[in-house]
Amino acid sequence: MTNQYTYKTAFILLFIVLLCCFIINISLGSVSIPLEGVFNSFFGTSTNESWRYIIQNYRLPKAITAVLVGSGLGVSGLLMQTLFRNPLAGPFVLGISSGASLGVALVILGSGLFGGAFAVLLTSKWSVVIAASLGSFLVLLSVLIVSSRVRDTMAILIIGLMFASITGAIVGVLSYFSSAAQLQRYVFWGFGSLGNLSWQEILVFSGIYTLGLILSIASVKALNTLLLGDNYAKSLGLNLKRSRLFIIVATSLLAGTITAFAGPIAFIGLAIPHLTRLVFNTSNHKILLPAVILFGSVIMLICDTIAQIPNSDYTLPINAITSLVGAPIVIWLLVRKRNLMF
Amino acid sequence: MKIIQLKSLLLVLFICTFSCKQETKTTKEIKEKGVALNLKHAKGFAVKTFKNYKVLEIFSPWPNADQSYTYALVDRTKLEDITLNSDEFDAVIPIPIQRIVVTSTTHLPGLELLEEDQKLVGFPGTQYVSSENIRTRIDNNEVRELGKNEGVNTEVVLELRPDVVIAFGIDGNNSTMETIKNANIPVIYNGDWVEDSPLAKAEWIKFFGVLFNKETQAETVYNSIETEYLKAKTLAEQVEEKPSVFSGAMYKDVWYMPNGTSSEAQLLKDANANYLWKNTKGAGSLALNFETVFNTAKAAKIWINPSIYRSYKELESANAHYTKFDAFKHKNIYSMSNTKGATGGVLYYELGQARPDLVLKDLIKICHPELLQDYDLFFFKKLN
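^ Those are the sequences you sent over. The predicted structure of the assembly is below.
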């Protein structure tokens, strides 16, 4: 793919695929609803109240969440891979997910250690969301403060990993003192989940998501320059510190809010940028960024459709599916291409 | 030379075979002569009483267990006079038990109903205990805290030196209990929770009866529970209308629903209710997704036990989907989470298994309010 037209065609195709995936995702689920019923329920003309509720208030929010999560993680993964020039970097390298895990662990498992006061928090949905956001924000803030004192971008990466270890240890202690039911809740949070977001939550989610996306788009030029190396970027007049801060804040807004609402979704953030690079054969972020948004949404919708196991009463954790489906695809693509586009 | 070798080999083989046979024969003879404890429903354990001792066998300490445990229970006064082949038993335990450690709140009613709760010397997670008598003993420091959950503090147990530790295991891998066993403190795995019917679970009081030499009292207690249970069941059968019932709530995307072969489903059946998942099978709970549950149970009349939620407001703030069920709209949700002991332990988790008669009466009262007019709900309460 080299010229503008080919990119245009590719984007149009991808967009059509996204629409198809969205419709398929809404049409399939545990409860078997015929296509006509799906459309009637969608437009509110169905006489079956249960179907109408399932489509409008369960499947539709879930599909929208899948789009937000897939695209947001893809974008934040791309930003991190470019910032650290490391193909193994993902949206969570800065300790965002471990920070969120710590926040959630304090709410869910804290009652084991701190007594009943925390039990009240357990039953509210927002408490987990707020705890995850606060947790990831605080860990990120610590990383930022420490990283403002270091020049080397790689040092930030290591600092992020160290913070992840610290929070992991605290979560371990909390887990040790928790009851089976609390552990189950925490483990389930770790599986990730796209369902069960109310419209109100989706509104908040998409608001923060949009903010993160605007910052990402604003950083496209800086990202392209960063690919040339820190020193070269500086010589081109890029304010390295400010760009770094912008990129980190954009990532934290995206990855932090996704983790807060959907849990720590694995793999997508790491794999989608690679997939996109392999397919589009470019490292230009003007192309990569919108492509990652489309790709991430499509893959996440497909994963969710599989996780719902259409027409069965059961459902699988989304995290298992993202890795199970995603990893082989990336391996296959790499083997075909024989080298990593990076 | 070779012939001599062959002969001696044959001789050794013959002796081995003969002695093995001899041993199994004596074991068999011993086992055949004992008097078996009368058990109507419980399948997970058996007791045989011999002249000087009893043999307790635990067949299913955990689901699908491929090993069973055999214990010799010897009267304290006769310990000196008896020789037992200790290889035949997992432990030789002097009875009646003077000092006991139990590890699950479900074990506590067994002690209390037999008036042996003063023998309890340690418990992991004492804050979950609801029984007033045992709470008093905990407050007086007569029952040691053994740590949280399954992580029983081995050192404290070793220091307490109980006659026996009653454990429970989800499988055979429990290193803590192995350490305790190695310190010559007998560990018995209680498999009451593996039983498949409420009455079978309740019959494990006889297991505690044997440990305290109180078989007769245990029999009496169990019989009265069984009689009450069956009486209530017969009463419920007279009603024509079966209200539809569903249970549980969601963990993230997964709605846990008791399967049709579970004790919960059995209790609902005996309460003459139409449990909407009564035809399902399997081990453990069903992990369903919201769509399925909503489609099946939206119009159900009664919702039982919505997980940890204690009020309609909590349910609503946890997930707006809950409010769309008819049972929510008509305020027909009952939970046992609101009936707690002094320190917050849910009473149902302690006493529910030992008193299925009370659980059944609760369910009958909920499903058929016209019956049991004078009965007040014991475990379940309407949501606040």
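Chain B has 14 helices and 18 strands. Residues 35-196 of chain B form a domain with the Rossmann fold fold (CATH 3.40.50.1980).

Shout if you want it in another format.
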